[in-house]
Amino acid sequence: MTATSPAVAGPRNPMISLAARGFVKIGVLPVLVLVALVVFASMSDNFLTVENIHSALRQNSYIVIATLGQFIVLLTGGFDLSIGAVTALVSVSTAMAMVAQAETSSPLTAVLVGIAVGMLVGMGCGLVNALGIASMNINPFIMTLATASAFSGLALMLTSGVPVSGLPVEFSDWLGFNQILGIGVPIWIAALAAVGLWVLLTLTRPGRHIYSVGSSPKAARLSGISEFRTLLLAYVAAGGLAAIGSVLLTARIETGEANLGASLPLQTIAAAVIGGVSLRGGSGRVIDAVLGAVFIGIVANGMNLAQINSYYQMIVTGAVLALAVVADRLRSRLAVAVYAGKV
């Protein structure tokens, strides 16, 4: 009786192995950015000018900040579909408080009061989401979908669908169009928000708990991590970041609008996933979310310069999101193969 020799695996292609490892490490974003830069630069001579890049970053700063909020929720394995409605409600609340305070106070006081009210409203909305998800164990998709409807309805009820005008001129001058060292204030605020979130997630224990809960809630509980407190932190922080973005957007358009942020849920999820943040939770970096949001801004700016209809922009955003989800799944499967030494 002769023993059968085990089959010997053929040699792996070094180029395929290198490409697979690179894709697992950096994701699909660099390829998409390169394609976007080449395409839009060929369609418009103004695309790569310093003025246009600065303008695009300033206009996209509120999406970057909102994406950071979506990112921290995605890390826990959840979604926040209410982020657009929170943006609208904060815009309305900020504007109404500012206008009311401006009648009896200085512009500075009115602006500060308005911002404080907006921040409280945003974090309050995040608290409502957190209590439903963490205390009553409601699925994040269902909970935030329900609160999105409620918050949007509340914003419309407060304004009767009419924009809130009469905000202090200083509000837009300071936060909408002002510059520090030649760079727009909204860009600085977005950068500070990103650094602050990086510090929270990387250098603090509650931040590491967010990753743990997203990776494996059961293992996190066995390790003594409070899932309730972690989810509370994540959703309240997401509400606060949405509020910051809403205040900046309100300063830019100089009115409080009840219909702001309708496309933000799609944009922020797309930005995070394109950046390589996992939809299954527990994986992703702040820089990934920021670069994904910047890419969304690049696409929007490039299509505007090319005079492409806004309806087509919605189609492109949806297509990019679908591509990013497919890439996320492929990346996960490749990661298993790479770490197992099969690629």
From TrEMBL:
- Show the GO MF annotations: transmembrane transporter activity
| Subcellular location(s) of the protein | Cell membrane
- Transmembrane intervals: 22-41, 62-90, 110-134, 141-160, 180-201, 231-253, 259-279, 286-304, 310-327
Pfam families noted in UniProt? BPD_transp_2 (PF02653)
Report keywords, A-Z.
Cell inner membrane, Cell membrane, Membrane, Transmembrane, Transmembrane helix, Transport
| Species per Swiss-Prot/TrEMBL record | Acrocarpospora phusangensis
Xref: PANTHER family: ABC TRANSPORTER PERMEASE PROTEIN YPHD-RELATED, ABC TRANSPORTER PERMEASE PROTEIN YPHD-RELATED-RELATED
Task: Give the matching InterPro entries.
Answer: ABC_transp_permease
Q: How does it sit in the membrane?
A: Multi-pass membrane protein
Q: What is its main location?
A: membrane
- What is the protein's name according to its record? ABC transporter permease
Of the GO CC terms on this record, one is:
plasma membrane
What the entry lists under CDD domains is as follows: TM_PBP1_transp_AraH_like
